[in-house]
Amino acid sequence: MLKMTDLSKVYRTEVVETHALRGFDLQVAQGEFVAVTGPSGSGKTTFLTIAGLLEAPTRGTYSLDGVDVSRLDDNERSRVRNEKIGFIFQAFNLIPDLNVFDNVQVPLRYRRMKAGERGQRVRQALERVGLNSRERHFPAELSGGQQQRVAIARALAGSPQLLLADEPTGNLDSQMAIDVMTLLEDLNRDGTTIVMVTHDSQLAARAQRNVHMIDGRIVDTSIELRSAAEAAVSFDT
Prior knowledge:
Helix content is 37%, strand content 27%. By secondary structure, it is an alpha/beta fold. Strands 6-7-8-3-9-10 form a six-stranded mixed sheet, sandwiched between helices. Strands 2-1-4-5 form a four-stranded antiparallel sheet, with helices on one face. The longest helix is centred in the C-terminal third of the chain and has 16 residues, at 174-189. 40% of the residues are buried. Mean pLDDT is 89; it is low at 224-229 and 231-237.
């Protein structure tokens, strides 16, 4: 599904050269739920931006669904990103002047999808996250947990092969965080591949596999698989 080999990312200015990723190797299989952890400055955000085709690596290869996407131009990256990747952000990134329905359908408009198909996909996604009765509400009328579920619906409406979550519960209280994680686990059980960046060790424990980063490198991986019940007990306690 996702394979990064000897990946490096270097940011340069006139006086400073910063190595955000160094010899980074990672494989994520179809249907996995992988948590990426590490301290601030470890390269998690850089990894996520490259995984999401928001920028290209300086060196190395990145294959997505068997296709080398590491050297695509901006237009090609945008096309693949819109068709294959869904994003969930800590800050929700909803458009305040659009209601729930219109927020969810924004990425579908970029595909030039017909209105009928857009509407069907949006309603299916909102039903999946339990918000079909809120489609005419605006973000300011929703709780934080509801806004995050709208963001998840927006990602799901495009039927992504890969779902990237950046601190998806970072702005939520503990109960809302549990609800969002349970939803992500349900999506993963239905076959969605999920890569989640988090600082929270309890959240990471609910993933199937943990990858720990320091100084732009993976320094530890855990391949111990947990059942949903075991993970839920770990999180609640």
